Amino acid sequence: MRIRLFYILSFLPLFHSFSQTIRINEAISSNSVFIDEDGDSPDWFELYNYGSQEISLNNWTVSDKDDNPDKWTFPDISISPNEYLLVWASGKDRGNSNTFRTLINWGDEFKYIIPDSNTPSNWKNPNFDDSGWQSGKSGFGYGDGDDETIIPNGTLSLFIRKTFTLNDVNDIESLILDVDYDDAFVAYINGIEIARRNIGGNPPLYNSVPFTDHESALYRNGMPDRITITNLDDIINSGENTFALQAHNVSNTSSDFTIIPFLSVSLNGSDTNLGVTPPEILGLNSDVLHTNFKISSSGENLSLYDDNGNKISELNVIGIPADVSIGISNNNNIVHFSNPTPGFENSLNYFQGSNLTNIIFSNEGGSFTGEISLSLSGTSGNEVIRYTLDASEPDQNSLLYSEPIDIKETTVVRARVFETGYIPSYTQSRVYIYNVNHTLPIISLITDPDNLFDNDDGIYVFGDSYDQNYPH
User: d(Cα 244, Cα 233) in Å, to the nearest integer?
Assistant: First the structure.
């Protein structure tokens, strides 16, 4: 069956621009690429002021329901001529009335100890006496450029503690923990575990080792891992609180050890006396906008209204695969973008639509004996099927399907539908396993060979500039 989405503005008015010079310029309903300040990848849309005057959005609204036009209200912000405004459709309901403050920052002083079997199990609790511990500033490590406090090479774990003060817990909307680490950690507030990465144990012992190695990110201009805590019941108190963290190295022969924690809060007010302004590397700024709704992946209409309730713009966000956006082209047509650009000018490379055709395999795969004559069908019109037999993703240069494929040995078949002017369909894969001589269940995992063996991206290849020391 052939399914494809295209847009001809004169016949199918999915996009309207009204008296104001603001429009919904681009949107996505299934995003896994672009990350918000919490480390999540929610839906998003973008507004664009194509006029010559600054326009205030104060008390404007946006909605995904025509019968509820004031579903989410913009705060007191303006959009300048030729400016793009990114809005996350996350369901988190945040405007610039929210304030982010950082309570624990890179370079703050902690109490710390290299633990052993005699370290008390209550070391993470608020009433623990850490006066005998050493003091040092974060980050902690072996002294490779991102460390303020040097610990001995061969250290397997490190326990750190620090207190912070909250004026009123009712002002706290969420806690935001960012941690740059090599190789694992567990974090606590007032003795309660709030986050962990890459290690087991309840809690891990002082000499527990991570599941695998994990490289720190900040020294490579990357982002620390982020965990957002919104259920704050029984975790924090008004007044003094205790943050504690145990960091673990993959082995005592590892060449590196890193732990740099940040703890921030999202406030529903503007208590600028609390903590400090978040460092730029965290990307926490107070003008990040989040609606109180998400965009359905099955498609729905977005509408923008001014402060008098007049509909200003709308965009029907429908028929787009994951990580593909829909928006307005440079000639004012509704098109699909394979390279979305949230908050920036839309790409000049676009498509009429996205191909959603489902390929029908005459054999669904699994074990077989003898020979299979595999037919691929489901296309119509100008659609064609291209396929590969080496587990790679099919592209426009892959084999063109024109006759049944003879399969006489274990084979991976991957296929996509192509049509001029349209984003190709998603890749569909089947595995045919020849002459299985057992009855055990079989699980097949398929990935492009480059993900394993490419010199730059392959996980089994050292590459040109790998570190001679483990973990390379």
Answer: 18
